[in-house]
Structures are given as C-alpha cells and as structure tokens.
Amino acid sequence: GNQRENYVKQLQPTHKAIDRLHVRLLGHCASGKTSLINSLKSGIF
C-alpha cells in the first residue's frame, strides 16, 4: 500500500528541518497547556 510506504518514509532519519508540526495538547484546567504553547512559540523553553 502507498499509505504504508509514506508512513515508513516518515519514520526514517533525515537531515531536513521540520518547518511545521501539528500538536494537540490535552489536560486539565490550569495544567500549563497555554504556557507551554507560548514558551514553544517564543523559543524559550
């Protein structure tokens, strides 16, 4: 299957930088989700 080949290619190491990454954060209220997002966006972590 073509989907399987694409998935395996994504798992292989590469020197190419990742421009974008989609992440979903789940957690309780006041657990720091927004603070983590703001920290990652600003580059301070």
Automatic annotation (TrEMBL):
It comes from the Eukaryota. This is Uncharacterized protein.
